[in-house]
Amino acid sequence: MSTTADKRYDVLVVGGGPAGLAAATTAAGLGLDAGLVDERPTLGGQIYKQPGPGFVVKDPVRLGRDHLRGRELIDQAEASGAELMTLTSAVAIRDDEVVLVPEGGHARTVSAGRLVVAPGAHDRPVVFPGWTLPGVLTAGAAQTIVKTQRVLPGERLVFAGSGPLALAFPAQLHHYGADVIVALEAGPGPGPRDVLGLLKASRGNTALLRDAVSYRSQLLRARVPLRYGRIVVRAEGEGRVERVVHAAVDRDWRVVPGTEEQLEADTLCVGYGFVPSVELLRLAGCSFRYEEDLGGPVVVVDEWLRTTTPGISAAGDGAGIAGALVAVDEGRLAALGAALDLEALTPSEAQRQARPVRARLARKAAFRKALRRLHAIGPGVYELATDDTVVCRCEEVTRGEIEAASEDTADLNVVKSLTRAGMGLCQGKTCQRQVAATIAARHGIPIGSVPAATPRFPVRPVPMGAIADPSIEDDGLFY
Fold this sequence. Notes:
By secondary structure, the protein is α/β, with parallel strands linked by helices. The protein contains 13 helices and 21 strands. The protein starts with 6 loop residues before the first strand and ends in a 12-residue tail after the last helix.
């Protein structure tokens, strides 16, 4: 692998979702040489995911608001002059350099005056008996199937989750033609105080309120029941999902005995929120704090979204789950901060341009605060697995095995070494939080006090040949 940077950008953005697109567009608009990389074939990220290559969209309006919002951001980025590189993974950060691996190509190193890391997030894994059955899929996976391939994930679908997704995604699936038989929301239903709080925080957030009302209306018209305070207990079936069992939960999302109900279904879509994708930021040595309602590990940033590692900023859901609209403004703010550091803007001009962005972010923060009681993640979400439930799907490690390995240690790295949990293809993205929760419960400590596993290069799965040094000759030693 080359140790000399192939190219230098003023600003390099990692991630092609709302935050990354906004950051690249803003940086290029300020006259900076900006580049953006994303591992997917199309830009837009998870929420604004676009149809895959080869699809022709004849009527964009029929694909919904998310498609239109994403398309607008992509069009702005394409017109900005920023270099947009898809199918390219960022696998390591070292000082001001980033190692990039294009699909089917060899690793190369680029450098930048400032890095804006906007890696987005992935679905919060929830482990329960039967979660590995075919037919159980996350909201993100279902969105990928529906939005990019135009394929419905099943015929009789149960949605279980919490937060805005519990309204939005069942409505979207029904719009695409899915038979959604019920939507289960683990959190409580809104009461008069919640409604009053949302109305007080509505300034600048009317679009969010309109979306929520629209989604709720769609569910009502479709006669899709929305049941609050219920969580999936297990999925059952021979070879695939045939039944979904759910139960009532208390305020901590712990199951209330004697409240189980069973539904016949062939698909279970699970959407309990998201977890920031922080692998690159951890590899870069950034500091973190833990906040469950923002997805868990949240990178520490200053007023310009600079991390504690010099030259690196973080924006969007990869810096704490707050939604696509917040991500857009965080991308803009991070780019303004980078321009300030590179002296492309004076301090007064940077502050002037940032003022309306900060005002919008403050209003979104007030709205999230008003929603906190309804969408707070309960610790019971980590208590659904039984001893024989597989926690690490890649290595087929059960909760009981993790319990046994953590008897004498609270070090996740030790448990990983003893059980191989987290050593598979996903590198712990799916299981690490559940492993940490199991360790925390075993030792009576907060989950946030269990350090994450040591980050390793490459942070994304890439072929060994893509990162090998091509100058080393075989001489018949390797087969």
